[in-house]
Design brief:
By secondary structure, the protein is of the alpha/beta class. The chain has helices spanning 2-13, 38-56, 69-77, 90-98, 112-115, 156-171, 176-188, 197-205, 217-225, 251-257, 260-269, 273-281, 289-294, 307-311, 314-322, 327-335, and strands spanning 15-18, 27-34, 60-67, 84-86, 118-127, 147-148, 212-216, 232-235, 240-243, 247-249, 285-286, 304-305. It folds into 2 domains: 2-117 and 245-271, Periplasmic binding protein-like II (D-Maltodextrin-Binding Protein, domain 2); 120-242 and 301-335, Periplasmic binding protein-like II (D-Maltodextrin-Binding Protein, domain 2, 3-Layer(aba) Sandwich). The protein has 16 helices and 12 strands.
């Protein structure tokens, strides 16, 4: 219990509030999310608060908690009182169903698009001019190339990167052993295994470590449009993995706190044109076809495959690659 209290105390430090007159809010929600969505949900929260006030006449405040996706999900199972979770992979919400029955097993069916309000994919960020001429996944395995990738054991960002590289190799006709050898070569080139995607971005952009950052398209878009944009170039590989970050109410929490109505409204809001526009502005691919068409010039066409197509399911991918003793553990053991 002492360890659990310590973990929750540490996580609480990462929770930020966002609402005008939050002290006078009728209801406060906690959104526990993954670590590269801070800016997105700051803007979503402001829009939702205004929209809900105008429609329901109620003042709602929203607090945010961000960190490595799998670590965030684990914190909720250990007692962090999330009204909603907005994760980057289904496994992290499945964990809430499996440990403590915090959500129903069929949570995907409760909102459109299997409860994923937007999509993204894995792309590369390189130094200006791309001095190492990094163009595709095979370049990450070349001697002399340093690739910055978040730790797949703790980060959905890193997990997607790993699975994208594996799928790329398999689509070239590789055996599972050849795909594993390919991953081994890539991760020998990874100088730092940060626990989350934002940490990996910091390592690459601020600590100047590595030749290429592998991360979500929206994170690359954020860096490419930011103050240091002149220092980096975005590179799109020949094929990548489609990510569909899902969301859910945490049933046990909202029923205990009496916040189900407000939490449901918060998630429903994500599919409105207003929220879909904010999503697109944050370099995530919206579900709304008209909003996507409006931003078509930003979202480069890219051949993608899904986890289900390549690995059967997220659960099977987790068991084979990221469970204790799985392929990733075998690869990391070889680094030592």
């Amino acid at each position: 219990m002492a360890v659990q209290r310590t973990l929750l105390a540490a996580l609480t430090i990462g929770i930020t509030g966002f609402a005008a007159n939050a002290a006078h809010a009728d209801t406060t929600l906690l959104n526990v999310s993954y670590d590269v969505t801070r800016e997105l949900y700051k803007d979503i929260d402001a829009a939702f608060i205004s929209d809900y006030k105008s429609k329901a006449g109620e003042t709602v405040s929203v607090r945010q908690s961000h960190g490595a996706s799998s670590a965030q999900a684990l914190s909720v199972t250990q007692g962090l009182q999330a009204d909603v979770v907005t994760m980057n992979q289904p496994n992290d919400i499945d964990l809430l169903a499996e440990r403590g029955q915090l959500v129903p097993a069929d949570w995907r069916k409760r909102l459109p698009n299997a409860s994923a309000p937007y999509t993204t994919t894995m792309v590369f960020l390189v130094r200006k001019g791309n001095p190492k001429q990094i163009k595709d996944w095979n370049d990450l395995a070349r001697p002399g190339v340093q690739a910055v990738i978040a730790n797949p054991k703790t980060s959905g960002n890193g997990r997607y990167a790993y699975l994208a590289a594996w799928g790329y190799k398999k689509q070239q006709g590789a055996t599972d052993q050849q795909a594993q050898d390919f991953e081994r070569a890539i991760f020998k080139n990874v100088p730092v295994l940060d626990t989350g995607g934002r940490g990996a971005t910091t390592t690459f952009t601020q600590r100047d470590i590595g030749d290429v950052l592998v991360t979500f398209e929206n994170e690359v878009g954020l860096m490419s449009a930011g103050p240091g944009a002149g220092n980096f170039d975005a590179v799109y590989p020949s094929v990548s993995l489609l990510a569909e970050p899902p969301v859910s109410i945490v049933d046990k929490v909202v029923d205990k706190r009496g916040t189900r109505k407000q939490a449901q409204a918060y998630l429903d809001f994500l599919w409105t044109p207003k929220a879909q526009e904010i999503i697109a502005e944050h370099h995530l691919r919206p579900r709304d076809a008209s909003v996507l068409a409006k931003h078509a010039s930003e979202f480069k066409p890219l051949k993608t495959f899904t986890v289900e197509q390549m690995f059967g399911s997220f659960q099977q991918a987790q068991k084979t690659h990221f469970a204790d003793g799985g392929t990733f553990d075998q690869i990391i053991a070889d680094r030592k």
